[in-house]
Amino acid sequence: MASLSTAKKELRRLIRQKLSQVSEQSIQRQSIAAQETLLSMPEYRSAKTISIYLSMPKGELATAPIVADAIQNGKEVYVPYIHKTTAASSDAPASVMDMVSLHSQEDFETLEADSWGIPTPSEPSIAGRKRCLGEKSLQSQTSEGQEEGTRSLDVIVMPGMAFDRRLARLGHGKGYYDFFLTRYERALGGSSDSENKMPLLVGLALEEQFLPERQGVPEGASDWRVDALVVGDRAVLRG
Known about the structure:
The structure is a single chain. This protein is of the alpha/beta class. The chain has six helices and eleven strands. It has helices at residues 4-19, 24-40, 42-46, 64-72, 105-109, 176-188; strands spanning 49-52, 76-84, 95-101, 112-113, 119-120, 155-158, 162-163, 169-170, 200-205, 228-231, 236-238. It has a seven-stranded mixed beta sheet with strand order 3-2-1-6-9-10-11. The chain has a two-stranded antiparallel sheet with strand order 4-5. Strands 7-8 form a two-stranded antiparallel ribbon. Helix 4 (64-72) links the parallel strand 1 (49-52) and strand 2 (76-84). Mean pLDDT is 90; it is low at 137-148.
């Protein structure tokens, strides 16, 4: 039997091959459909704080209009920021993802693209932004209760290479979202307070990224499933 890592790599290869044949027009059409569907979801409409992935120039659903709508409607918007870590923890990777706040639409529009073409906050700007988690969340959690400084999110809009009908998610292989969500859960410290609970995890997928009924995403113990999936044909799946 192929190892979990090998199975994931093979599925990523197949999805990349499939995505290479999807036209820009199809991605644009599906992006508009998915955006409209997400914006109509009651959880999105009621959310006060939301994290939204910033999309690559091609190969996935575009999220810029979602960011613009959230800002226009007064939501506090957070976006991914990947940085190296010096935390002394055996389970901490060399680089991790945090969520940092956007100040405004102008702030969003002036973000510079990284090597993937993804708009990304600059390192010098981070000190002036709110952070959902920080270095402290990389340490082993020994005390009960929510970690001081953790900023609650209502919704996290997540990308993925592939999703299945169980709402399992295949990422790009770096484990950024899975480790972030584990840190977030740990930072909550088992709080039962309704104000301090895990966010609703919403995946966005092109039709080509949604696996057929009999095909599933290979899963490991550290992999997180989403709570809802919005597909480019306007379909919405919920757990």
